[in-house]
Structure formats: structure tokens, C-alpha cells
Amino acid sequence: MVQVPNLQPAGRRRVAAIDIGTNSIHLLVAEVDPKLCSFSVVLAEKATTRLGDRDPHSGDLSAEAIERAFRTLRHDRDLALSHGVEQIVTAATSAVREAPNGRDFLVALQEQLGLDVDLVSGPEEARLIYLGVLSGMAFGDQPHLIIDIGGGSTELVLADGRDARCLSSTRIGAVRLQREFCQQDPLPADRRGFLQAYIQGALDPAVAEVKAALRPGEQPLMVGTSGTAMALAALAAAEDPKPPLKLHGYRLSRERIDQLTARLLAMTPEQRRALSAINERRSEIIVPGALILQTAMAMLQVRELVVCDRALREGLIVDWMLRNGLLDDRFAFQSTIRERTVLHLAQSFGVDPSRADRVAAHALSLYDQSRGLLHTDDGPGRELLWAAAQLHTCGKSINISAYHKHSWYLIRHGELLGYTELEHLMVAAIGRYHRRSLPKKRHESWQLIEGREQRRTVSSMALLLRLAAALDRRPAPVIAAFQVQRQEGAVGIVLEPVAAPPGQPQVDLSLERWSLQACAAVVREACGLELRVPEH
């Protein structure tokens, strides 16, 4: 994420989003009105860079594709900054996440262009697409089935106006299938049949997931986003007696899509390039893209498609607005997706929810009471601390003695929607360092956190989680509250036991005091403070 001085008049804010896709790179500059909780598009640009044209042997992003991408991204960065944006949020999708040299490419972008790119997972890509569509369509009470056919992947989302019920991503896309299956053009009948069967097999799991999430009697409206859907809509609209002024909201019947697909399949490359409704680069990949859409509609038994001109790039803007508290109640539910995805992951790993809640509550209380003493975080670390506290024991299902290492692995490779890749790594690292050794340079979990500020946040939040976990040594809660005291060269933590039942002796907190005191050496090393845990 690039941050620059805000050049906008008071009350209005500008932000840019860059979507680094397999086929194209999209730039969007948006002006946000905080009072109306909405945004308008100031500028939208697209360049076909074909990052998906990877080396056939190694799978690496090719040098030519990287050069094209750098040229485009340098232009997009400069153009966005010239419009006075305060931030540039950037996401890369399937081509970069699958290429062996994808991370090297992102490091080079950061070093040479100053662009911090979020490498999003397939489900996270689907979530962002949903947010983009939600910002441009009124869902009402009808469920919507969103299909986004990209260059390297196809996302299917079943959603309504309250939440996304199903987020799936499949590794088939227009560029990928063109490269792997369409060496002959036009496609011979047998090759076409093989490709259709391949698409159906690839879509099967996602389609089954969507069908399982539909309620009895529901008829979802299918929404098509991005290049393939827009191109087919443009071809159809060009034949209408009164072509629409814009394609957003344009409707295509399944029969019309079947007709268009059949015509495209019969054309030579030269004939497709001559179509005025689509550009030359789109004509090269329109056939496999149309086959994906046609197959998906048949499998899902939908009769009509409505086109939406908003997708991932608008979703990045909506996500930025959610993170900055700039959206009205219509989108408020989406801000809870981070909490829900953490709790879902904890549940799947068999974490004890009551104990995780206690440790999280202790950790947040320590955070609030010790600002300026045990940490200097100004806000972002608090939410990461909560997530790590909920998940820090998930590794116990694998190995008790070294569970913190297993927790790191499980969190690292689990699905945390709504978090950037860096935030995901930070949550995993906070969980990793809540016990045993402090971070060391040789640790993979530490090497992955490259920024100095981010490492500082991980270290301080891990220390708070270590102290919070030390306060939860028994299955039943025994601590009612505690106070953090600022002392000369030291930090004191005074524990208050839960009230004892009538006639019973007061709860003895010797175990918890001993457990806290065992953290003294780590507190001294991390903060230069003595830890004192008085009996009263």
C-alpha cells in the first residue's frame, strides 16, 4: 500500500486500486464521500499485460510479461498520484500466486516502484469481487450468483444483501485454457468436447458447493463480471436495434450466450479480430472464456445472466472504506468477516472457545492498560492480537510440547478472509512467539515479516499474548480482573481472584502468579523492565 499526502479538499478523499490480473492490469481512482458513505469513479484504465503467459517449463512469469507489467504499473502509480490519492491499494491474483518467481516479482515492485502488493488467495479474491458487485447492485432479498471469469481462475460466489454464503475459486481461466488447449484455432470438434468436459470437471466442486448453499425454492440471479461477460454483452448489444449506452445491468439469456459461443467457435482468429465490439487481445481468449460461462450456466441451470461492470478493483475500494469506517449500515455486516473467519478457523482446529475468549479478553485488557509501557502500538495490532489469541492453541491438536510452532503453521496455511497476506503472517507469528523463545533471524516465521514496524508489532503483541496465556492455567476461570501498574523501571501486575462461593476459602492464585513471574526474563529482554507480581 502506497501512502502519499492527501491533496483533496476537506470532506472528500481519493484512493486508488490496482488489480494485477492474469490477463490485464486495472487501475481505478475513486473519490470517497464520507458523509454519503459512497464513492464515485474518477478514472479507470486497463492494460493487457498477459502475466499468464508464463514459461512453459518452469512456470515462472516470463521476463517479457514482467517488463510489460512494470511498464504499466509505473504508469498507473504515477497517474494515481497525479490525481491526489492518499493511498494506492494493490492486489495480485492467480498468475502471480502460482508462479514460482511470483514473490520475487512482488519484492521487485516494492523496491523499485514502492508498491506493496497484497497477494490474495482464491477465496479472498472471490470476497473482493463480491464487495465490488455489492457496491454496484441492489441485491434486495434475492440471492445472487456471481461468476468472474479471469485469465487464470474463475470465481463463483453465492451471496445476498447480508452476506456471502459461498466463496469459491477454480483454477480455470480464459488465458490458462487458451494456452493449454487451444493450439488449433478454430477448435476441432473432438478438442472442443474434451475442453468442455475438462471445464465441467473443474467446476464440479464449486457448483456442488453453490447448490448446497441454496435454500429450497430459491432462484438466484446470475451476475457476470469482468472481461468475458463484458465482451459477450458487447457482442450481443451491438446487434440490438437500440444498443444500450452502458453494459452494466445488460441481460443475456442462456440461449443468446449459446448462440454467441457457437458463432465464436466457428470463426477463424482473423474473423474474431475483425469484430468491432471487442478488442484484438480479447478476441484471442474469448472462446475458452465463453465456454466456461456457457458450461457454468448449464451446470447451475440458470436461464439468464446480468452483467455488472464492478468487480475486484471496486471491491478493493469497498474493502478500504470498510477498514476506515466509511460505509453505512448496508455494508456493516462485511466488517465482521475478519472476526467470523477467525472463529471458524478456531472451531475447525478444535480450539476450546471459552478458554480462547478468556485469553483474548486478558490480552486486550493488557493491551489497553499497558500502552506506552509494554507496547507503543496505536491501534492496528489490537485486532491482530485478538485473532492470534483466539488461535494460539490450535497446534495442540498436533503436538502439545511444541504446539506454538504447529499453531504458526496451521494459522499460516489456514484461510483468514479479510486479512491482507502481511496481516495473516503477523497473526501467525504472534501466535508462534507467545511461548518459548523470542524471534530469531533463522526462523522462517520471522523472515516472512520483512518490515521493521511490522516486526515491532509482532514482538510486542506476542509478549502481551504470552502474559495473557500465563493467566489462564486452569480449565475454570479464577481471575476476576487485574491491574497493570507503572513502576520505576518495572511493570507490576496485580491479580484479583473471582469471588469464592459462600463458606468457601478465597481462590489461591499462586499458580497464576508463578506462571506470570516465569515471563520475567522475556519481559526484561523485550522491554528492559522488571516484572513484579505481588501477592496482594
Walk me through the structure.
By secondary structure, the protein is an alpha/beta fold. It has 3 domains: 2-120 and 314-326, Nucleotidyltransferase, domain 5 (2-Layer Sandwich); 137-309, Exopolyphosphatase. Domain 2 (Nucleotidyltransferase, domain 5), CATH 3.30.420.150; 338-476, Hypothetical protein af1432. The protein is built from 20 helices and 15 strands. The protein has helices at 63-82, 94-98, 102-113, 122-134, 174-181, 189-213, 226-238, 254-266, 269-273, 280-300, 312-323, 337-348, 353-369, 380-391, 403-413, 421-432, 444-447, 452-470, 510-517, 520-527; strands at 2-3, 13-20, 24-33, 38-48, 87-92, 117-119, 144-149, 154-159, 164-170, 221-225, 251-253, 304-308, 479-487, 490-497, 530-532. The strands form 3 sheets. Strands 1, 2, 3, 4, 5 and 6 form a 6-stranded mixed beta sheet that branches. The protein has a 6-stranded mixed beta sheet with strand order 9-8-7-10-12-11, sandwiched between helices. The chain has a 3-stranded mixed beta sheet with strand order 13-14-15, with helices on one face. A hairpin with a 4-residue loop joins strand 7 and strand 8 (154-159). The two termini are 48 Å apart.
Annotation keywords:
17% strand; single chain; 15 strands; Nucleotidyltransferase, domain 5; elongated; 20 helices; alpha/beta; 47% helix; 6-stranded mixed sheet; 536 residues; Hypothetical protein af1432
